[in-house]
Amino acid sequence: METRKMFAFLNNARSTDMPVTEAVAKAKTGEIVLIDIREPMEIAHSGKAKGAIAIPTAALRMRADPSSPECLPELKQGKPVCVYCASGARSSMAKGMLSKMGHEVHNIGGLGHWVQAGGPLEK
């Protein structure tokens, strides 16, 4: 089944602080850090947004906190961060956590929103 059709049930009118189409464009030019917070099995099943860093929710605090020795270098650059999950619920919680760490962060919803906005996938 074509990926876009698989996510056709999604409503494009969802509320977000950065339109997903804008996140897709900024990801292509490297202006944002894109984080997939889903579990590894979810990513293995569906793939992830091209260029996204996979950080499961349970590891987010350790891997994204600039004061942690485990913080990823991409998250120390000061770029805006966009997070997504399967539907947008977990990424909403992740947004709050990342904001408290000092990141400028946007919840762009679920992987299906990314696909519907023309975002490419990778396995």
From TrEMBL:
Gene3D superfamilies: Rhodanese-like domain. It comes from Tropicibacter naphthalenivorans. It holds the Pfam family Rhodanese. Signal peptide: none annotated. This is Molybdopterin biosynthesis protein MoeB. Residues 28-123 form the Rhodanese domain. It comes from the Bacteria.
